[in-house]
User: Fold these one by one.
Assistant:
Number 1:
Amino acid sequence: MMLVCACLQDDTNMAPRTGRDLTTGPIGRNLLLFALPILGGNIAQSLNGSVNAVWIGRFLGESALTAAANANNIMFFLIGSVFGVGMAATILIAQSMGAHDTAQARRVMGTSASFFIGISVLIAISGWWLARHLLHWMGTPAASLPLAETYLRVIFLAMPALYAFAFLSAALRGVGDSRTPFRFLLVAVVLDIAFNPLLIFGVGPLPELGIAGSAWSTLLSQCLALAALLFHLRRKRHVLWLGRRDARLLLLDLPILRALIVKGVPMGLQMMLISLAMIAMMTMVNGFGTATTAGYGAALQLWTYVQMPAMAIGAACSSMAAQNVGARRWDRVEATAWTGVGFNFLLTGALIVPLILLDRWTLALFLPAASESLEIARHLNHISVWSFLFFGVTFVLSGVIRSTGAVVPPLLILVVSLWGIRVPFAELLQPRLGAEAVWWSFPVSSVCAMLMSLAYYRWGGWRKAHMLAPAPVREVAVPAEVPATPPSPVADPAEEPDQDPDEAIDAGVADPR
């Protein structure tokens, strides 16, 4: 509830300020500057998780590490389940800002904030009571179950702060600001790393909390970072800041809420399908023995970082394209897509090449030198790591396609590539190729996904999609000599002279109600 309380503080005489206008200026420079903070945030969060795992595993033992891993799987699933709704809010806000309709952006902000806060409070309350049942359902080992329950209950208490921070970060990216979320994410990461040993071991006046101390560290760091971010938005008089006079905007706007759910759920399902596909692949790899599984696990550690540039560029392209959709700048939408694809090849390739050339040393960070697992990891890495170049093209184009509200086609492309190609390819060809079938399933499915994405981007109807349904036309009596023009679904910016009339009609994306 911290967000509601802070948003209802008095904001008399506050003039709103906006973030970066992504509808003007050089596309390449703006896209790169926008994507780099997102990439930095992803890296910081991964490193934070690794540092916390070291404290727990090295000093509290294997049972504690297993407990934290099981509890974190639930936390990541819950955060991922609302990922799509956050993306939908980002696109709606970006479209409104591109159309210079700040009133609509603030309406989206109010409805989205109420939705996220309400969901997070319900999850926190229910999770506190259901923690043991969830862990038992996951098959958490008996030795780790009490530790995992203690850890997970505190994590559930942190959910409102986690959800609020994630939502504010998404909203700020919608107005073209990726630096502010990155700065305050770094604050949260630094605080979490600092609090972990203090609360685990009880330094000075602080109590010794064991594994619960790591969860309390997450809660405290997120709450402090969230409070600092809210204070920053209020002090800067940000366009998305909702003060006491804007309390009515926190009431749920049903068309906006419907768009958040209808458009957000398919985007959230994409993340879940990717996770489930990785679980399916791991299950297959487990059947080839410990050495193969260890080699695959080491490669996965590297792949976590290889895919980050594509994910950051895809998120940046989605926000930039959405603003230009709102501004009806289809030329810049097109340029954003191909610039993003180029940056994907440049940044992802810059990671892949040294990982191939220096793989004996990079994989040796996770495996003993001269072990059988190391050679297996090197072999599968040479085959599969290139798939992330093609995956990046799909991710970038999907981000641009979703910027209009076309969220189902990217989901279907993912379903076909993962569950219609990757998993069956690996499963059906194992009798002939053995583990090679698993390794080759990555590039094969990634190339197919890229080709499907390129085809839909070129010939699909995504440019005619809408995040919000167009406002209904109301019949109004007018003099015969005056044409009756239905209101545009966005604020009515002047069309460019060379703009196609059909595109001008199809570009309506935000409901002003």
Note: The chain has 19 helices and no strands.
Number 2:
Amino acid sequence: MSKLDINKLDIAQKIGQVIMPRIDFNDPNSLPLAKRLVKECEVGGFIIFNGNRDIVTTATRELQAVSEIPLLFGCDAERGLGQIVSDMMLFPFTMSLGAARDEDLVYNQAGFIAREMKECGLNLLFAPVADVNTNPDNPIINIRSYGDDPELVSRLCVAFIKGCQEGGVLACAKHFPGHGRTGVDSHVDLPVLSISKKILLNSDLIPFEKSIEAGVASIMTAHIAFPEIGDGNAVTISKGLVSDLLRNEMGYQGLIITDSLHMEGISKLGNEESLSRRALNAGCDIILDPKDPYTLIQNLSKSSYQELDESQLNPSVERIISVKNKWLTRDTPSGPKIKEQGIDLREQIARRSVCVVRGGVLKSQKACVYTFDVTQSNADISSAFNEHLEEAGVRLEKRSNSLNDSLNKKEPITDNISDDTAIICLLYTSIGAWKKQSFLPDSFKDILTELESIPKETVLISFGSPYVVRDFGNFKTVICSFDSLSECQRAVADVLLGKVEAQGRLPVSLNLN
């Protein structure tokens, strides 16, 4: 395909290029709308949700075939394409790699994700998460971050970017200038952080600086307000943070993409036309995931819209076209994707990320296992762990506790448990947009406080956020993994059984009481 020339694009085509709507394969109306947006509006690309390999691959090929200008197809595959596309590989949460502290492992994981994406026609990966998770009560970053050390996060971000982009897929460092300090999910509301620019420079911005040095193709803005920095607006619509800081001071020349306009952290600040104009005028290049893309494009394209600064729009379109000329026309063979490679990588990450905070090997051959699950899982979430212990000869009694199924507090919670039986408490948490799955409710905490005071062998294991163990300083053994995947649960069981030594080191500070 010949090189694209921005001078041949009219204003409507330029507007189309800076808009990246969603395709949700669970919505039967989504793909027909996408085809209309390509044919009538010449949109620049799409963010993909749901579907399976065949459906996604067919759709991307069909849309590329009818588009005059090559399309970007992005997805939030931080943990692997299986996070978005149902029959692809899913890896443990990012903090697992922070605990393993191995750049080669991160590089290999990113390269594998890139190969799976290219197989489906996807070319833009909204990762790595460059946020330094300095707030233990962060409800939306948390285990999506590599950790709370800027240097560790930087090293692993760079490894991810290299693995991804050497695999022919654009990487995207997010969420500029750092989402790790927030105590609010920006999907739900706008976080406001009253901190100085100096603090950002000494911590949160370091991974973005290193990502820029590594040649990251794109950076995503955070829907966060910093009243003491720049013009005080939310980052996505802040010229002081996007143009002045990221472009001019930090020298970034790649694509700047907004976070989703579906998120209430930004949508509460105005209508989509106003927010998009402000984001583009602030220096953003791509408006991601608007709710009504067709109307948005029509309104932005009206010649009467004097508020849209073409001196900002033209450089944005030039960057988009430059990226497409560089990345979407070169022949980068994806190579054979061997499923066993992904399975082996997942196993390595699971085993090398187990962290023993205190204690060690289980002494008793009998245990009562209490499961505390806030992930709203419909499955028997602890089955992999329990079965692994039972296969090793440990006799188990199991007591579950979910948000919808509380333990009966009318009788002692250790009733009928013999003296030689250990108490094992399993905590299952997770992170998801618009969900409150990273914290334990008070009812769980009350039971755990009672259990940790029992004069028996007591074990506390977290599968998910490590921060949930902070309130329980009396358990004799404390172990952290960062995901509930079966590989993670079996890896922890092997450490508890003394079959292997834990290799992970906590990538965050816990200050266990």
Note: The chain has two domains: 6-329, 354-496.
Number 3:
Amino acid sequence: MQPIRLIRSIVTVGGWTLLSRGAGFARDVMMAAYLGAGPVAEAFLIAFSLPNMFRRFFAEGAFNMAFVPMFSKKLEGGEDAQGFARDAFNGLASILILFSILGTIAMPWLVWLMASGFAGDARFDLAVLFGRISFSYILFISLVALLSGVLNAFGRFTEASFVPVLMNLMFIAAMLLADRWGWDMGLTLAWTVPLTGIAQLAFTWISAHRAGFRFTPGLPRLTPDLKRLALIAAPAVLAGGVVQVNLLVGRQVASFTEGAVAWLSYADRLYQLPLGVVAIAVGTVLLPDLSRRLRAGDAEGGRASFNRGTEFALFLTIPAAVALVVIAMPLCEVLFQRGAFGPDDTAATALALAIYGAGLPAFVLHKVFQPLYYAREDTRSPFRFAVWSMIVNAIVAVGLLPLIGFSAAALATTISGWTMVLQLWLGTRKMGDEARFDTRFRSRLPRIIAASLIMGAALWGGSIALGPALGTPLWRYAALALLVAIGMAAYGLAALALGAMRPADLKAALRRQR
């Protein structure tokens, strides 16, 4: 098989992810305008977070971390990869069908675990209703994640990357129809969730079929490969559970402040834009690439992939983090403040966004370091690191809640993210030179940081100069676009002047096979 073109594939996945995040942002802007930060918005956000939380637990954050390396190595070795994928699909589907039924029945308890602050008011009953309607989404989207892993391992990144775009477009269409025909907006959003799951599963099923992978639904078979997959996946599932506990703590802390669940969710959407474009793209491409290189004994190629992937990720991420911190208020004011979303909501969301922005490089580095472990089928080390990260998250979130309020949840997320990065980096010391940073990376990183700080200064000055226009409904979009352009130009010029990235390097990376 042809090797995966690393940077080109990252750009492909990143481009589709950017489109998805843009559509997702449009979805959230519409939700903010229709629902604000009120009870219906908070109830839906909690309900929608439940299947998404368990999706990361079962599929993207755990099962696939074990499945993709094994499947990729079978592809590289010419073994029965299709039979292995079929057995994994049937096994996962049987577990998820049972879990979906149990979760729907236990919805009041799940909502209480997510947001006990809702108990006793209208938000709780609404969240239970919306949750029961939407929980079956976990079945569809988890199977989508497995099929996407198959497509990614085969180097077909475009089809899998389009799936989130489809979901957000369906949400936008549903809200427009609800507004046009006078449907209940909360119920419309809740029913749209499982419908998007069905559409996404159908799309990836057809894409896998066209790629030559045919999955016949049937009863699960406990084969030796499936037993080995379960043993490898178990620590990853536990690690995924730890990550979800962190999210649970954040939701609980936020639920005791009216509106905070929505503020954190909208801030999360903004910082997820660069996070998704860069981190998901790098992680998606790097895991199968490293797995196949390990199977082929290509240590030098593996080190080059790790270093160039990390360099490219930080070149995009560090300036994005600086921008989120420096212009958090203008971003939230221009993008969210309308309709039911007022100035107080803007200020609270901007505070959360700035805190999340400080952790953005850490969240991206998770996706860079973790494939080094998962490609070696080491899922236990990330689990141990995640446990310590969970402890830090809980101490910060709960301990600082009485002092700084809901923002303790965002601060805990950022601090625990950097704690996880430190552990992941220290853990790679035993992997040898192929997991170490090379001379080029060590030379480029300080230049990237310096160029980002120059950009931050330009954004700060630009936000002051454009302040009146940013607060004017007629000019605010143009002013924000100009501010972003100022930042991009400042970073681009500074990066070129300091040698943080050379155009020739990017062109070569897009041309070469690794």
Note: The chain has a mean pLDDT of 82.
Number 4:
Amino acid sequence: MKKYLILIVALILGSILRLWQLSAVPNGLTWDEAAIGYNAYSILKTGRDEHGAFLPVVFKSFGDYKPGAYIYLTVPSVAIFGLNEFAVRFPSALAGILGILGIYLLTKTILSLGSKTTSTELPSQLSALAFAISPWSVHFSHGAWEVNVFSTLTIFALYYLLRFIRNKSSLYPSLLFACLSLAMYQAAKLLTPLVFLLFVAIYWKDFWQEFSKYLNPGKLLRLAPFILFGAWIFFGSLFGSAGNRLSTLSIFNYKPNLAEKALPIDGVGSLAIPLFHNQTELSTSLVLSRYMWHFSPEVLFYEGSIITERGHIPGLGILNPLEFILLTFGFIWLVRQLAPGTHDSPSKSTLLILGLLLIAPVPASLTLAEFSTVRALFMAVPLAMISGIGMYYLLRLLRLMVLPLFLLYFLLVFYVFDSYFLHSQTAFSTEYNYGYKQVVEIIKENPTKRVIFTDVFGQPYIYYLFYTAFDPKTYQASDGFVDGGLDVGKVNKLANVEFRQFSSPEIMTEKDTLFVGSEGNINNQFDITSPNIALFRQFQTPDNHIIFRVIKTKP
């Protein structure tokens, strides 16, 4: 046990950080989280999703289509814990914990490929520790993020691929995890093949030697289910209605107008070819600029204007600020392995780790968003490896002299998570739709003939379904979802609840009705002392910003 002390500490600490206050931090649910939870509940009770589709592989959600693997992972969680925030987020938290073990196994395997002299145990355990306390990983383990589970699945897919290359495992476990990653997250359709190609290209000779053993009818037949399933998921999410999300978010569908003053620069005349001012050049420039942003200190180490509050710990970047030092020494150690006279295997290890880092931002760079901490989350994997190697290299160079730096680093870790768990709720409240749970509780406690619920914040019906555990059979029978174009749509009415806007005069004329509105629907001039008002409540964010106001009229 002493040999694995750091790994054990990493697993315990990482589990605490990912499970503590899982229901309450962040202090609300996103629309997608509520939809995941209710669809898992619907599958559990009826075998069908909210729209009545029987065990779908791809789920329709607010007019969008998304892979359904996370929803199916949530089904047993809802069965055990009930329909609540903890159940929805638990699969992601568990994936984050397993990812710590996966980082250890993958790093150790990469560093030990054919190497007889390079130490592997300590840097691998330190990489697991770096991942355990990574603010990026912890934050995304505190939400129902498919990308977080995808990252863990990909870690294990690559680990078993390397074991296959080393003749220590069959190919089937790696293919299984790869197929599951494709079913988990849209960006996997690009990222999973790219990282597999990286590993195969670097170890092509060893890979082909092992893979050639599968080139017989019996073993090829066993590979067929994995190939067919992967192809089905891959092409099914690229074409048809399920591919709408990819086509909409792709930067290549963005066609900005070229500046008229720039067009004549390349030449004059009808036969002139615009070499430098054209759509291809502009798209390439946009992709490269988005790609480079992922390595910006503004993004990595301190809060930048392009990061949404939902995607990081408020007031901070996506990494511990002092991790810059660990990453620097980790890069130095890796680059030294490429120097002439070093062993070949460490050089390939360096290429694998740095290759993972360079490939990880590619899917996020092909979208319209300048930077997305969601789509770029897999970067946390190679960054944790490099940080762990940096810790190891610092220990080798400075020995006990490095203790003050490590002490400062872990004090900053304490500060980061103190900020996350105790002081981030003000920023998270609007990003995570704080207030819906409290409002639905008021509706449940005050039955009325009619409820009119504002839709100004978008998709209130899914929160009503979620927090009332609305009977899925009843909802499926009266599915009132109205498509409103790509990635939109709404439900106008559900039982006695209407989801729409309303005005103050309507409140004065309706009896036995509960009105749930924003400050715009029920303004400060509204007379709450009127004789027909039976109840008035308002709900505020932690910084006292009014979200909802609730009025109940008398029968």
Note: The first helix runs from residue 5 to 19.
